[in-house]
């Protein structure tokens, strides 16, 4: 902190509810100003609206200049506030209200980051197939939708059912008709009764 100067901007800028809402929407914290969302290590989050920008390339400062009521950022690496009008880091334990706000923001970031980590871990544990959005239970090797056998039908060997297409030359069309020809007859109740 520069001399006896004490920043009064933090109390005016803090909007914890907005901050939390915006962080929850994100899958990752990346600078919003990069076209390719390159990863930066000096990220600040606007405590008023949740904008994420990098400090070293000036993206966070540009955001603050564009929004006159936004002037304080929360530094993710150091877990401290940065005040743009005062051009300084707000030290830890400078004033009780500021320290409480800092702790609230730290807790919010940790809570949301923890939830995101759990979501990612759960997604990695539960494999999904391209055939079904239904996830398999933990410990299951097969997705129920992918099974070749069902309770009321006999097992069908893999590859026995193949799809072929034939062209519609007789109608003068150049494309394919999409009619599937099965290499195996369909199971019907009449055929089952005949087999018995």
UniProtKB/TrEMBL annotation:
Keywords: Hydrolase, Metal-binding, Protease, Zinc, Zinc-finger. It holds the Pfam family zf-UBP. The keyword Transmembrane helix does not apply. PROSITE patterns: ZF_UBP. GO terms for molecular function: peptidase activity; zinc ion binding. The keyword Glycosyltransferase does not apply. GO terms for biological process: proteolysis. It comes from the Eukaryota. This is Ubiquitin-specific protease.
């Amino acid at each position: 902190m520069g001399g006896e100067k004490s920043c009064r901007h933090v109390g005016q800028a803090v909007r914890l509810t907005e901050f939390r809402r915006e962080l929850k929407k994100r899958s990752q914290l990346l600078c919003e100003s990069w076209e390719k969302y390159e990863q930066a290590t000096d990220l600040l989050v606007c405590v008023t609206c949740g904008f994420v920008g990098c400090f070293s390339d000036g993206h966070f400062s540009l955001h603050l200049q564009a929004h006159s009521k936004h002037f304080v950022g929360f530094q993710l690496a150091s877990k401290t506030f940065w005040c743009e009008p005062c051009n300084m880091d707000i030290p830890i334990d400078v004033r009780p209200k500021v320290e409480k706000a800092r702790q609230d923001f730290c807790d919010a970031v940790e809570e949301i980051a923890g939830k995101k980590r759990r979501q990612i871990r759960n997604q990695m544990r539960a494999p999904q197939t391209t055939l079904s959005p239904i996830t398999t239970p933990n410990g299951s090797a097969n997705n129920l939708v992918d099974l070749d056998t069902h309770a009321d039908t006999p097992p069908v060997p893999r590859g026995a059912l193949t799809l072929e297409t034939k062209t519609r030359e007789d109608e003068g069309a150049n494309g394919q008709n999409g009619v599937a020809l099965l290499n195996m007859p369909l199971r019907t109740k009449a055929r089952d009764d005949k087999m018995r």
